[in-house]
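@channel sequence for tomorrow's demo:
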Amino acid sequence: MNRRSAGASDNGHEAVIISGFGGQGIVLAGRLLAHAAMLAGKEVTYIPAYGAEVRGGTSNCTVVIADQPIASPIISFPDCVIAMSKVAMHKFAPRVKPGGLLLYNNCLVDEDPVLDTTVAAVGIPADRIALDLGSSKAANMVMIGAYLQRRGCLDLQVAIQALPAVLARRHHDTIPLNTLAIRQGAEFARSLAPSATVSARPQ
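structure tokens (generated this afternoon):
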């Protein structure tokens, strides 16, 4: 079923919630978006949140990107949700604004979401793409690439340029992998119809 395109908000204000479980690099993904937004000269807020346990527990962060000063960093109804796990999708997908976007990691989510008919829901095989590149740890970057391609709120290259600033120096050897993951996530999203709802579960 086709739904309206889920490009970035017309008013220059983009709010995204990224969620999953500890160890998936949720907070790092949010920091990357926030730093990329700063490099692009945008206003930005970034709020991370953790569950009872860091690794294996719940994790989410909220990033707001805007052309004008941001009145509040607290977002109840985001323009986009990036869900890296089934629990994350169940918790945050119902909050997506009408006309917004849900991106979910369909390697870990084995069901199609039930949402407002104006919300585009797109399954991304993030774990599979990351594994094909050499490490499942890059799945978060795959989702960021898909998000940037789908929403268009920031240039892909700006996010790639932000990698050295958000990765600890001891992890700078992963920059080439993360760069590839961002590009592959964007390429996968680009291959999909812009207004289509896609489950696209990996075979």
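heads up for whoever presents: Residues 24 and 140 are 7 Å apart (CA to CA).
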